[in-house]
Amino acid sequence: MNEIAFMDATAQAGLVRSKEVSPVELVDGAIERIERLNPSLNAVIHPLYEQAREAAKSPATGPFSGVPFLVKDLAAECQGAPLSDGSRFTAGRYVSPADSELVRRFKAAGLLVLGKSNTSEFGLLPTTEPERFGPTRNPWDISRGPGGSSGGSAAAVASGMVPAGHASDGGGSIRIPASCCGLVGLKPTRGRNSLAPGIGDIAGGIIHEHVVTRSVRDSAAILDATSGSMPGDPYFPSRPERPFLEETREGAWRDAGRLKIGFGTEPLNGAITHPECVAAARSAALLCEELGHDVVEASPSVNSGMMFKSFGQVMTAYLGWNIAAWERRTGYVPAEVDFEAVTWRMYQHSKKQTGADYLLAWQDLHKCCRQFAEFFSEYDLWLSPTLAQPPVPLGYFDYSYETRMQHISHLGDFTGFTLVSNASGQPAVSLPLHWTQNGAGGGLPVGVQLTGRYGDEATLIRLAAQLEQARPWAHRRPPVSAVSPSETK
Hints:
Layout: H1 2-5, H2 9-17, H3 23-41, E1 44-47, H4 49-56, E2 68-72, H5 101-108, E3 112-117, H6 151-159, E4 164-169, H7 175-181, E5 184-187, E6 208-213, H8 216-226, H9 250-256, E7 260-263, H10 275-290, E8 294-297, H11 304-330, H12 341-352, H13 355-374, E9 381-385, H14 404-414, H15 419-424, E10 428-435, E11 445-452, H16 457-470
Parallel strand pairs: 2-3, 7-8, 7-9
Antiparallel strand pairs: 1-3, 4-6, 5-6, 5-10, 9-11, 10-11
Helix pairs in contact: 3-4, 3-6, 6-7, 9-16, 11-12, 11-13
């Protein structure tokens, strides 16, 4: 079972189909690993073991029939499980009466939900250190965070608890933990995965949902299983010409020909990029050239001051909406004691905003999105670091009175490459193509990001699969994992 732990979801499903292993055995093995590793990592906060064992007796006959899985404890509804959004405000106050459409599709694909994974409070921060549940730790170095807000799922997948986990992304929250934990993190096009039935969009379509995985083929195949709009959805991206999984085949790369790739290492907010992150992107750019693509040092030109200010205003409104929705759902009135300091302060700001403020912020964001999208009239993809820094220590985003300004600075110094595609709705993926080499943090994963045109996950997936074959990462094991590390360099 420990050897199976680091097979991807596609391989595990293949073992079930060939009857080499049963779904019950896969579930029991995953539960054993969670119970053994979770005290060190704190990735799983709501076990659903008995539900999973019962479902394993007769799993749905989809492409991932019998494969263990986790659902992030944010927004997604999983029948019979508590939904917390990482907050004290929701403590013990709500159990999902039914699955949301995305979770229903996960289950229809045969995935078996073993539990809910940890997240930051309301998914606000690029780390996973909620006061209510405590911090999730990075399996590559437990003194560091796994990124956020999907850090629970990322730590679980990276350590071998499960082969794939649900994640959501409102400013990088799929790609950030993928970068920090050495995983594939694809943020699809806006509307590719539906938020039905309870939600049309979140914050004007900024928040997108998918998974973190060990392989490109898993991310593609799960997207095949879950994508597609529902009646009444506000966004209907064009359907792909063929299944996303087909884009991972070698023939698909050869048929697609040469790509023109823009390459840059400076964040759109002007922050300084860590040398390891620069090295990661430069090495990936050289690899793309070796694979026959045209790579030009070029980045989008965006009014970064306007973009980051307006994005912050939209996210402030998102928080106000989220807390108001919870108040209406539960009947509980928000009080300062129920929230983390950064959340409460942001919530107070939200109550001063008007509808006009929100719409003006989106007007400015749309201007920036047009600037960003213009870049892709000349280039097929933009290649960059995923983050401006390797995984940072736990506590890096501390928000006390004394560190408030430092907190804001740290947000910008860490991210800077990710949130623009949330605003524009374009797909982007983080790939684990680099590991640090020196110093106390040696052997930490560093992601490389590819951003594509709106609706064009296919090109991203083709190049991602090509890079995975040229520079594979499946052999790597973190120090905290289901098996002893065989190679971490």
